[in-house]
Design a protein that fits this description.
The chain is α/β, with parallel strands linked by helices. The chain contains 7 helices and 11 strands. The strands form 2 sheets. It has a 9-stranded mixed beta sheet with strand order 1-2-3-5-4-8-9-10-11, sandwiched between helices. Helix 5 runs parallel beside helix 6.
């Protein structure tokens, strides 16, 4: 392991890079699926968390995938922007998380008895939400500006229920559904329907759809930090 000046512990677990940061002791373990689209993403998210809840205890575990479209997509789909399709390897990522990532963190930090949450932005947000339907590991989900426009997600969410009792935070930027891309423009209606379905799900303890100003790329770190703060509130 090596410790950065920013107090980020970095280690590779079964081929996946982890960036680990801890505030205090105890509290939830927040797994965050990410890819470094920009420099300093981990530090920026951490700073956003510290601005909103500097006294809150938690362990942040960012797991960095190699290919955004491939590793966070739950199934295969054609490209909806650019030329890169979705290879549908989300199941492989989830398998790694459940069999390698989570056990490593539980063992190393002795946090097996603490709540485990899963957070993500955009396609990683969809992955976090999908994981809640596929496994019973996470007690809190933060799906921020999630890619709910993804092919056949509307069918999937109508046919599935959460695997365990958990709280789910959804958010979307007010301008996101105003895009000229016809597929991505469905994100507003799908996210509203997702909220409705979750409110009817017997395993959903708390659900909220939080609307943010701006489009998809407006300060993802702060939007996710808002989601984590909501999960912390427990009310």
């Amino acid at each position: 392991m090596k410790m950065k000046k920013t107090n980020v512990t970095e280690i590779i677990v079964s081929g996946i890079q982890l960036h680990i940061m801890q505030n205090g002791s105890g509290g939830p373990v927040i797994f965050w699926g990410m890819y470094p689209h920009q420099g300093g993403e981990v530090e920026h998210f951490w700073e956003s968390l510290m601005e909103l809840m500097p006294e809150q205890n938690f362990l942040l575990v960012a797991f960095q995938v190699e290919d955004w479209n491939r590793d966070f997509s739950p199934w295969e789909a054609l490209a909806v922007f650019g030329t890169e399709a979705f290879a549908g390897q989300g199941a492989r990522t989830l398998k790694w998380l459940l069999e390698e990532g989570v056990p490593y963190i539980d063992r190393t930090y002795n946090v097996k008895e603490q709540e485990h949450w899963l957070a993500g932005y955009s396609l990683a947000g969809l992955f976090a939400l999908w994981a809640a339907y596929e496994c019973a590991t996470f007690a809190g989900i933060a799906c921020c500006s999630g890619s709910l426009w993804f092919k056949d997600w509307d069918i999937y969410m109508r046919e599935h229920k959460l695997k365990r009792k958990c709280s789910v935070y959804l958010s979307l930027g007010g301008k996101e559904e105003k895009t000229k891309n016809a597929v991505m423009a469905t994100v507003g209606d799908r996210t509203r329907e997702q909220e409705k379905l979750l409110l009817e799900d017997p395993f959903a303890e708390r659900v909220v759809l939080d609307w943010n100003p701006g489009g998809h790329f407006a300060d993802s770190g702060k939007r996710m930090a808002k989601g984590i703060r909501w999960l912390m509130e427990k009310e």
